[in-house]
Amino acid sequence: MNVTPTDFDPMESLLRILELSDAGGAQTDEDIFIGLGDAKAPRARLFGGQVLAQSLVAAARTVGGDHLVHSMHGYFLRPGEAASSLTFGVQRLRDGRSFSARRTHAYQGGVPILSMISSFQKPDSGIEHQEPMPQGIPAPETLPTSAQLLGGIDHPVARAWAYERPFDIRHVENDIYFDVKGEHVAHTAVWLKTLGPMPEDQNLHRAALAYASDYTLLEPSLRRHGISWATPGISVASLDHAMWWHRPLAVDDWLLYVAESPSASEARGLNLGRFYNRDGVLVASVAQEGMMRIPDGTAAD
After folding, report:
1. What's the pLDDT score for residue 301?
2. The pLDDT of residue 45
């Protein structure tokens, strides 16, 4: 039995969740914003990348339009529900001539589920260098889409990965959706971009990239031990997330996302990633530690 696309429009959903309301101007010692839940969300659990992106949009609403987010550091405190609305409280920590700092808490049910500090900078000039883009990477047009890989599998997770993500994600190596083929190495690479055009707002592009950065970042730790996402009994969750934006980017054009895992221990895996545009320009870097509980005897070291 083949899986067919649903009437869920993932790109429309992405743009909708990034349109926060200002709660009618409500304010305490924080600026308050509301992000609507999505009753049509294909999953019950809130995707971590979504709350990261929404928290950045909330913080950006409180800084001048000439300031762009250049870094953020966040901790996931509790799981959230995809269909429920979120409240964002933004505290203005500092506004200087070049930099502005914000602390954002995301709440559901009256309790915080994410705590984040982000920094925004007015564009400036200075010294420049970057780690070069890996060589020999095939073009994204030559690689299969998630729908091509998973569209024939009758499984709700396969349906979500194939048709309900707002990003086109194409693995350079074999994917690890249901099994791990090839060498068990602690690195991975994917091409990705949004399924449709994004508004011109650079902070919105950067927030959308934060959304996408949570998709495959833990895969190097799993691939290294021959563990797929479909492993029975596996329990994986993001613990923290840090990100740095180096240069202007377009998330609606192809970006190469390379990642590696330098360490895994004590049921945690550390993963580091870099984003390059098609011209080989390093536009962003990311780091995340994830909780990984694996059934005994599953890992193929």
Report:
1. 63
2. 86
When pLDDT is cut at 50, 70 and 90, the band that residue 190 belongs to is: very high
The pairing of beta strand 255-265 with beta strand 235-245? unpaired
pLDDT-based confidence at 158, cuts 50/70/90? confident
Q: What is the CATH number of the domain that holds 110?
A: 2.40.160.210
- Residue at 128 is within a domain: no
DSSP letters for 157-202: HHHHHHHS-SEEEEESS---SS---S---SEEEEEEEESS---S-H
Q: Is 136 among the domain residues?
A: no
> CA 288, CA 271: separation in Å to the nearest integer?
5
Q: Using one digit for the tens of pLDDT, what is the confidence trace for 45-97?
A: 899 999 999 999 999 999 988 999 999 999 999 999 988 999 999 999 999 99
What are the start-end ranges of the H helices in the chain? 10-17, 48-60, 146-150, 156-163, 202-213, 219-224
What amino acid positions are annotated as catalytic residues?
214, 238, 288
φ and ψ of 170, to 5 deg: -130, 115
Question: Residue 131: inside a domain, yes or no?
Answer: no
Joined together, the tokens standing for residue 14 give 């992405």
Alpha carbon distance 159, 167 (integer Å): 14
113 assigned to some structural domain: yes
Whole-angstrom distance, CA of residue 51 vs CA of residue 125: 31
Residue 24 in this model has a pLDDT that exceeds 80:
no
CA distance linking residue 113 with residue 242, whole number of Å: 16
Count of structural domains within the chain: 1
What is d(CA 119, CA 99) in angstroms, rounded to the nearest whole number? 7
Strands (E), the chain: 31-35, 68-76, 86-95, 99-108, 111-121, 167-171, 187-194, 235-245, 255-265, 268-277, 282-293
Q: What is the span of the domain harbouring residue 279?
A: 10-123+142-293
